[in-house]
């Protein structure tokens, strides 16, 4: 059992999404004591915004790649390989401005590749990263329930984009209310005790 922990908060030991992700991994390790955990911290050497050279490399067949294409696509290939080797992904997702952090979005832009992680068929798009499970560790300042659910763009976006590349078994675990005085003291503890595997 290989677990890939994707970190996208720059707050290190203070990060709620990292703590929640680590708690999910501890629970998984109780189920799979031999599980190997690989940590990918996207805040260290973040993936760049997609530039023209990346797009050219993505859409040029590998046999025609120039040295410049090869250099531009290397990190994308490595990131996809890391996912291929994982059985379970644990993705830490702090909410920033109602969506995911830009480092997480940049990683997604480098792993969603036509012909590699998804393809278009006569029946529509097909995700190619099959037989994986993802746990999302979401940390938010507010609580997105009731009417406010519609302004949480973390949950629906990650569910959709992971499904698009084939990862359809996605479980969201949330720690909420870190910006709310009545909730912040217990938000992490509550999020951890509510973890669903
Ligand atoms: C730049 C920034 C933007 C944020 N935007 C939101 C937001 O739109 N909604 C919200 O509920 N919380 C927001 N927060 C609060 C974070 O989601 C909260 O602090 C969470 O714990 C961050 O995860 P982390 O502790 O793993 O870094 C924001 C925090 C920062 C630093």
Q: What is the CATH T-level topology? A: Rossmann fold
Task: Please report the first level of CATH classification, the CATH class.
Answer: Alpha Beta
**CATH architectural type:** 3-Layer(aba) Sandwich
Order of helices and strands: EHEHHEHEEEHEH
Count of domain modules: 1
**What portion of residues belong to β-strands?**
15-25%
Shape summary: globular
Number of helices: 6
Provide a descriptive summary of the structure in words:
It catalyses: N,N-dimethyl-1,4-phenylenediamine + anthranilate + 2 NAD(+) = 2-(4-dimethylaminophenyl)diazenylbenzoate + 2 NADH + 2 H(+); 2 a quinone + NADH + H(+) = 2 a 1,4-benzosemiquinone + NAD(+). InterPro entries: Flavodoxin_fold, Flavoprotein-like_sf, FMN-dep_NADH:Q_OxRdtase_AzoR1, NADH:quinone_OxRdtase_FMN_depd. Its EC number is 1.6.5.-, 1.7.1.17. The protein is of the alpha/beta class. It has helices at 16-31, 52-58, 67-85, 102-111, 154-164, 187-193, and strands at residues 2-7, 36-41, 88-94, 118-121, 124-127, 133-140, 169-176. The strands form 2 sheets. A 5-stranded parallel beta sheet has the order 2-1-3-6-7, sandwiched between helices. The longest helix has 19 residues, at 67-85. The model has no long low-confidence stretch (mean pLDDT 98).
